[in-house]
Amino acid sequence: MDIASHDSLETKAGGAPDALADMMRAFEAFKDANDERLAALERRGAVDPLTEDRLARIDAALDAQQRRLDALALKGARPALGAEPAQARSQASIEHKAAFEAYVRSGESAGLRQLEHKAMSSGSDADGGYVVPPEIETVIGQRLAAISPIRGIASVRTISGNIYKKPFMTAGPAYGWVGETDARAQTGSPTLAELPFPAMELYAMPAATATLLEDAAVNIDQWLAGEVEQVFAAQEGAAFVNGDGSNKPTGFLHQTIVAEASWAWGKLGYVASGLSAGFPSTNPADPLIDLVYALKAGYRQNASFVMNRKTQAAVRKLKDSDGSYVWQPPSGAGTRATLMNFPVVEAEDMPDIVADATAIAFGDFARGYLIVDRAGVRVLRDPYSAKPYVLFYTTKRVGGNVQDFDAIKLMKFAAS
What we know:
Helices cover 38% and strands 22% of the residues. It is of the alpha+beta class. Among the domains are: 73 residues; 125 residues, hypothetical protein PF0899 fold. The strands form 3 sheets. The chain has an 8-stranded mixed β-sheet. A hairpin with a 7-residue loop joins strand 14 and strand 15. The longest helix has 29 residues. The radius of gyration is 26 Å and the shape is flat. The two termini are 41 Å apart.
């Protein structure tokens, strides 16, 4: 396959079957080019720049096909607003939706004030914004799960307050095996501690023109959900990985990180790659095997690799001891690429492969990381700050932190 053919992969139109076929062809070409590169290294200790350039072009084509498959999967996963029949919704829900649309389009808030007065709601006035209808909040949550990488694999809990406190045992009651007539030691009470998960405010401020708001053919619900989902996903995705816990969630990479041999509760263990800023030249996939087996068997069943696109490009070139590539493309739209038979989740907020970077995470994130969403997404209409545009200050409260420090392991790109 020549370079022109690789480039055409990026622009070829078609559905999921075409995209998958194109990706498989690109991956076969990638393997051929990488095998040529490895053979040149063995023969001459150096690689022809043209071969390196060819490999980089095919690698870019693979990334383009992955994005294309992701886009097709996302399009299919996005739920449609307004699909529920009106008769299946409660009268209160129908009234709320109509009043909210009137507020967004024209600023008329009397209907929302009346509904919240009926519900004896406090703190939901024009200064703090109004709660969106449940249908819009649900769709925003579902769309975030589809496009926010960590949210898609972590546990998510909806709370009604500003903080969720999860209890866990630091010491349990006595236990053991005994014979039928043996004496039993008195069992002590378990010792409990709490992990706090505060929900911080996340906001987006989409803008609309008066023409858009006056156009009855425009689905305001769809417009608002579509405008805020990308902003929310980008901001929370960064926080779930690297957040410092100050007015934002605490990311899993912000935890104290220690060598796996020194692991203790409250810290995340890492496995060294064996080489600063890269994989070792001999048996380069072995550190990935060490990372997989640093995780206990009970966590491996639902484990995923998490890395950014540049790191995935480096991992694509690795082979196991049998000469097989450890990275494999997705089997279809809506599925993920795999690394050593575990799914790969792309999170662009993960660091690149540089010296001492923890560029790869592996674990059962459903057990390891907890996201808390406070119920209620609010919208405050602002027609004054950016005339002639109307701003919609949209807020939700979200928090996150590690809940099981044994469920996530990291790879540190260092000699030890």
